Batch of 2 targets.
Target 1
Amino acid sequence: MVFGFIYDFLDKFKAADFHISPTMHVRTVQRKFKENFGLTLRIYKGKQFADGGSTIAALDRRTRANVDTTAADIVIKASMTAGEVERLVKGNYGLTVQVANEYNTYCLKNKYTLGQAGRKEDLEDWCKEKGHDGIEGWLKSEKCATVDEWYKKNR
């Protein structure tokens, strides 16, 4: 698809790269990630969700798992896959993260870039895998006009 190539190319040059530093609060990281990419970043400390009021650095003092609070800021780009983001955060801070859709109802497959997921290409592929004619066909089968309407109806 020609548009896919163009979108992927533009994702590499998106002006608003996203930075995470050890001094940022978990809820700030999550809010800014959503503002920047339109997606949810789940941050864990061990197997539990991290406390939103804690800084990345403070998570180290709250549980046994080590968090590298001396690691440099990391930069996340729209051209990175969900798997790359998860490995980058784990490798630099020792934290487990998962990238989820905007409604936080499912985690992205590792192969999708943040840009693709922000454009709902992952949802488009899921709908086709389930036998629908894209998102519009799925929404029609669910008797909804928009994904927002489906989410409000089914949460």
Target 2
Amino acid sequence: MSAKRHSRARPLPARDQLLALARTRGILRPRDLAPHGLSRQTLSRLVGEGQIRRRGRGLYVAADPPLSEQESLAAASARVPHGVVCLLSALRFHDLTTQNPGDVWLAIDRKARAPVSGDLPLRIVRFSGKARTEGIGRHIIDGVPVRVYDPAKTVADCFKYRHKIGTDVALEALRECWRAHRCTMDDLWRYAAVCRVARVMRPYLEAVAADDEAG
């Protein structure tokens, strides 16, 4: 009677494990390696071979797939943790625009040092006072804390920075936000006051409210 042989699957080589981890996580940081028994030397070798790409200081991605929109937000937030996703990027995050920004729009304090973006496509906008600190939602993307302005706050920001992004974009955002019930009229008036654009927004807010009553 012959003895049965039990085959055991060999573990993947470290390089393959690291590549799989990068593809799974989207954004990979050196501190993510140790819990998986992987080394920074392996990471460096894969970067040298072009299998892994550096997307900023301490941020790495697999070279084959491009970053998704949300992965880009995670990479930008990891690079600029004090920044808040704003304007076109916040509209896209909340599905309130047909715009598809190639850059990640981040708000930082007007006195903060401008970040070195490296190869991350960032658009930095200076906010101050309550316009910077209010209306921030907190999310986790690929394990990275990402701060994004809420829908109503983003609409008010768009009117404040309408000369940067276009009045048509601000109006689209307002209509979509209201149509999708992502805000209340009180929310819109509150953030219009915070951003000091209540007089600018008044006729548009009255128009959407009137259309709602007529409907």
